[in-house]
## 1
Amino acid sequence: MDDRALLLARYRELVLDQLPRRARAEGWVVTADHCFGRIVLDHAVGGRWYDVLDRRRSPAFAQLDDAQLHTAVGLAERIAAEGDPLLRRLDAQSLQWRGKHAKSPGRR
């Protein structure tokens, strides 16, 4: 497997399985895989991911260039290491890019 294929596999493992499972078990601010995808993709591209990637082409993460994919996987790894406090900050920024308010503590 080449580096890109390994990174794509790691992204899927973290964002679609590991992070949501852990978030549900530990009561993190978001728990759904699509929310983790939104947060990680937004930060990988520096704004709303669908302003940069084609939302009709699935999966969106496969459209990331190599640098963006490295950023996305690195960020997902940081979320796995740091947990809910980091996730709350990243989610708040992602929601701000969408003109929405951050979730209040205790609300999902």
## 2
Amino acid sequence: MASPRQYTISDLAREFDVTTRTIRYYEESGMLSPARDGQTRLYNDADRVKLKLILRGKRLGFSLSESRELIEMYDPDSDNRHQINALLDKINKRREQLEAQLHDIRLMQEELDEAETKCREALGET
């Protein structure tokens, strides 16, 4: 059986294109728990997967606590339906937030267009 792979903080920072400070932040928040070899942090495959999920959650607009909640639901001995349903719920809520923001942006664009038109009319640039 192959021994588990270990990663340094620099390995993970390079792989995921984040700073070592970012990884240390996730460690301080309790999301990652590397082993130590002197001053060197050694991350295992589980830490690597957690980091990948945290960063994916961030890209999707999830808070760190939302990502933590989802990650902590994982149970390798189950079908993880509960975790998947929770993720689907968060996806739907995020989509609703984005649609509301998009609606607000479109309204703002219309208001800017109207203001620009009135300014141009006032300058005689119709």
## 3
Amino acid sequence: MKLHLDNNGSTNIVTGYGADHVMINKVRHDGNLLLTATGIVSGWAPGGYAGLTADDFAAARDLGMEIVLIGTGSRQRFPSPALLRPLIEARIGFEVMDLAAACRTYNILVGEGRAVAAALLFDALA
């Protein structure tokens, strides 16, 4: 069965991903970022997973979404609850998953018209 995403052209969707990048509407983006249906914040969480701060999640909170999908690279890793406090206090739902699952889940939720952000982290390259 072939599936085709119906995109009106103004919605950001993930069209591909790899260990060091994500394709959004067929345009490559390198580095950690925040993604919403209408915007891309490059340079998010410059310290990578190991350098995450509460301020990184405050930036995600400030997007005004109802849910934030946190993609933690090639494997699922759970940030400390202290780091997630900005989301918790704002009563914003969040899910932690690996990068690939976050990209797929983001596409499903944005396709449903949900107010969702993807906070995408890439593994540090050696």
